Amino acid sequence: MAIANESTAATLSNEEILRYSRHLIMPEVAMEGQLKLKAARVLCIGAGGLGSPLALYLAAAGVGTLGLVDFDVVDYTNLQRQLLHHTADVGRPKLDSAIDKLRAINPFVQVERFDTLLNSQNALEIFRGFDIIADGTDNFATRYLVNDACVLSGKPNVYASIFRFEGQASIFATEDGPCYRCLYPEPPPPGLVPSCAEGGVLGVLPGLLGVIQATEVIKLILGAGESLIGRLVLVDALAMRFRELKVRKNPECPVCGTRTQKELIDYNQFCGIRGEETVAAPAAKIPEIQPAELKRRLDAGEDIFVLDVREPHEYQICNLHGTLIPLGDLPKRVHELDSSREIVVHCKMGGRSAKAVEFLRQSGFKRASNLTGGILAWADKVDPSLPKY
Amino acid sequence: MPIKVLIPTPLRPYAGKQSIVEVSAQTVGEALSSLVAQHPDLRKHLFSEDGKLRSFVNVYLNDEDIRYLAKDATPAKETDTITIVPSVAGGV
C-alpha cells in the first residue's frame, strides 16, 4: 500500500539521478519509487534520539518534504545519542542545529520547521500538510496526542519508543489497522516509568529504533515489502533479540474503533499530570532542606545522618559520603536506620529521595527530610567541584 | 511444567533482576499468580488493588495478546512463552 502525494515531483534532475543512483538501480525503488519519495511529505515529531536517525536517513533517501517539530535546545547530555547535534550546537535550538545538518546531507529536501510544543490546539493543523507522521517523542501525553491526531487526520503513525536498552516499533493509525490505544488504552500513572534522564538509555538504542522507523516510512511511501502494521517489534539490544507480537485493532477503541472520541482531548489530564511535570517535584507535605542549609549544619557539627538512595554506580560517580541504601532496597533495610536521629535523604535530583522520605515518615521516622534538588543542586550551590551527570 | 515468563526491562528490578522467570501453571492467570508469588514486589506493577491486570501492561501468550484469547483463562503449555509488555514512552 503506497502512501504518497501524487500531485508533484514529476521529474528528477541529472544531479538527483546521480545522487540516488543506488536506489534507482534496484527494481524495488527505480525511478518510479524515487519520484514517490520526492513527492512524499513526512512529519518527524522530535529532533532528538529517535528523530536524529529518522530525519538523517529520510533526508538522505530523498524524501521531498520533511517537517520537524521540536521546541527544545541542544543539551550537552544529548550528544551521547542525538547524532543530529554536535558539540558546537550545545545551547542552540534543536531545529537550527537539525536543519543545518539535513541541508548539508541533502540540499534537495525541503524542511518545514515547527518550533513549538505539539498540543491539542495545533496538532491537527500541523498534520494537515503531511502524509505520514513519525513519532519520536519522549512522553506519554504526546504519544496519545499524536496517535489520536493521526487517526482523526487519517495519517499513519510510524511509532517507536525506547527505554534503557529495549525498544518497540510499529505502525499505528492506518484505516484497517490498530492504533496506539488498541495496544495501550491507558497510560501508566506519572512517575511509574522513568524518563531517559532518570532511567538512562544506551546511546545506540535510539539509533537502532530510529532507523527501523525510517525504514518503515520509506516502505510505506514506496508500497514495498511487509510493513509493521498490526505488528509490534520488540528489540532487546543487550541480547540482540528481535521478537514480534501481534497487535489487533480493538473494535471497542474509542478513537479508531467506535470513533466515539471525535476530538483531541486534554492529554496532560489524561496522563494524570497537573501543569508542568518537573523531575524533582516533591509532594507538598514532605519536609525539605536546602543544600546550603545542610552544609551549614554539617559544618557546625550537628548530628545528621545523610542517606543516599541512589544506585551503587551513581555513588561511584560522585557522593556526599552518605550511607547508600538504594531506594528499591529501603523497605528491606529500613531496620538499619535509627528513627531517633535526624535523617536527610538525597538522590540525584530530589525525586527518588522524596519517595524515600514519604516512606520513612509513614514508617515512623519523624525526623526524615528531603534534600531539595538532590546532589545536582549540591553541586550547583555548595560544591562546584562535584561532577554533574 | 515450566513456562517461561519474559520480564521487560522496567520490571526486572522487581523480579530479582531476572529477564526470564520460569513458572508452573496450566493457564496464563495461574502463571502470573505464580510469578507474583515468587516476586511479591512485582504485584503492584502488574495488578491494581482489585486484582485486575493494569491497563498499561499487556500480556502475550506467544505472539497473541491474551485479551483476544481467553484472558486469564488462556491455557498455557510447556513450550509457550508469556511476554509482559508495558508501555514505555522514551524517544529522546
Set down the secondary structure blueprint.
The complex is a heterodimer of chains A (389) and B (92).
Chain A: H1 14-19, H2 21-24, H3 30-39, E1 41-45, H4 51-61, E2 65-69, H5 94-105, E3 110-114, H6 123-127, E4 132-135, H7 140-153, E5 157-163, E6 166-172, H8 180-183, H9 196-199, H10 205-222, E7 231-236, E8 241-246, H11 267-270, E9 288-289, H12 291-299, E10 304-308, H13 312-317, E11 323-324, H14 330-333, E12 342-346, H15 351-362, E13 368-371, H16 374-381
Parallel strand pairs in A: 1-2, 1-4, 2-3, 4-5, 9-13, 10-11, 10-12, 12-13
Antiparallel strand pairs in A: 5-6, 6-7, 7-8
Helix pairs in contact in A: 4-5, 4-10
Chain B: E1 2-6, E2 20-24, H1 28-38, H2 43-46, E3 57-61, E4 64-65, E5 81-86
Parallel strand pairs in B: 1-5
Antiparallel strand pairs in B: 1-2, 3-4, 3-5
Tags for this model:
heterodimer; A: 389 residues; alpha/beta; Rossmann fold; 8-stranded mixed sheet; 16 helices; B: alpha+beta; Ubiquitin-like (UB roll); 2 helices; 16% helix; globular
Describe the model.
The complex is a heterodimer of chains A (389) and B (92). With 389 residues, chain A is of the alpha/beta class. Chain A has 2 domains: 14-270, Rossmann fold, CATH 3.40.50.720; 288-381, 3-Layer(aba) Sandwich (Oxidized Rhodanese, domain 1), CATH 3.40.250.10. Chain A contains 16 helices and 13 strands. Chain B is of the alpha+beta class and 92 residues long. Chain B has one domain (2-86): Ubiquitin-like (UB roll) (Roll), CATH 3.10.20.30. The mean pLDDT of chain B is 89. At the A-B interface, strand 5 and strand 8 of A face strand 4 and strand 5 of B.
CATH class of the largest domain in chain A: Alpha Beta
- CATH level 4 superfamily of chain B: Beta-grasp domain
Please compute the radius of gyration of chain A using only Cα atoms: 24 Å
User: Strand content of the residues of chain B, in percent?
Assistant: 25-35%
Question: Shape of chain B from CA axes?
Answer: globular
> Alpha-carbon distance between the termini of chain A?
46 Å
